[in-house]
């Protein structure tokens, strides 16, 4: 179309300048012709740029459509983004420890008037001229109205008044209920050495045992002549 307009203008121009016969157009006709040409050229360029504008508008519209679709896609929450991880905790059963109470629980006695102590066989290690007391058997009778808790003996051997020996009770004899008689054996720590020169006649040596509780309160006492000849 552009070339057609240029060609048309060229003809008008050439016709007016290079023709052998001079053609004189009336002023109104000339203005009309020039106006038509100008209108045609203007219309051409208008249609040309209008086409471009419409094409750009279409492209923009298409692009806008894509953007809208993209935004719509992005705004839609995906399953991955919306999936919540839920941890289910299984409640642990509560356990309680119940300490059974005995129906025959007794009062602990700390004042002693009815505790009896007796001495059984005495184990010795004889060395011809001297010996060593290794252990002895004992019996404790509880006639109190409640439980007693004896803890140790203090042992004294005749002739050795200044050499008291502390002898702990075994665990089995440290709790004695009312009316119970307990018999057990106590080991003398490191033994107790003696000889005839100091103790006298070894066939009858007096041994004294004093029973105490853990607080050091005396519970009972005994004296017995024992054969230590081995």
Structure characterization notes:
The protein is built from four helices and seven strands, in the order H-H-H-E-E-E-E-E-H-E-E. The protein is an alpha+beta fold and 230 residues long. Among the domains are: 27-64; 115-226, Immunoglobulin-like (Sandwich), CATH 2.60.40.10. A four-stranded antiparallel beta sheet has the order 4-3-6-7, with no helix packed on it. The radius of gyration is 65 Å and the shape is elongated. The chain starts with a helix and ends with a strand.
Number of strands: 7
In the CATH hierarchy, what is the superfamily of the domain at 115-226? Immunoglobulins
Mean pLDDT: 75
* Largest sheet features: 4 strands, antiparallel
- Cα distance spanning the termini: 149 Å
Q: Write the element-wise H/E pattern from the N-terminal end onward.
A: HHHEEEEEHEE
């Amino acid at each position: 179309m552009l070339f057609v307009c240029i060609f048309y203008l060229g003809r008008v121009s050439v016709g007016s300048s290079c023709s052998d016969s001079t053609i004189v157009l009336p002023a109104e006709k000339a203005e009309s012709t020039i106006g038509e040409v100008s209108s045609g050229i203007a219309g051409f360029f208008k249609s040309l740029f209008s086409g471009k504008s419409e094409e750009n508008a279409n492209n923009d519209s298409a692009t806008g459509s894509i953007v809208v679709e993209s935004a719509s896609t992005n705004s839609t929450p995906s399953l991955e983004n919306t999936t919540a991880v839920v941890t289910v905790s299984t409640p642990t059963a509560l356990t309680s420890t119940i300490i059974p109470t005995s129906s025959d629980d007794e009062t602990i006695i700390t004042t002693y008037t009815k505790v009896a102590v007796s001495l059984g066989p005495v184990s010795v290690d004889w060395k011809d001229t001297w010996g060593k007391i290794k252990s002895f058997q004992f019996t404790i009778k509880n006639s109190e109205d409640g439980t007693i808790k004896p803890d140790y003996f203090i042992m004294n051997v005749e002739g050795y008044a200044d050499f008291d020996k502390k002898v702990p009770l075994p665990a089995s004899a440290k709790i004695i209920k009312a009316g119970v008689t307990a018999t057990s054996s106590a080991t003398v720590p490191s033994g107790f050495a003696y000889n005839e020169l100091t103790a006298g006649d070894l066939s009858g040596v007096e041994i004294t045992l004093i029973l105490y509780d853990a607080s050091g309160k005396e519970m009972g006492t005994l004296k017995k002549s024992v054969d230590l000849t081995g």
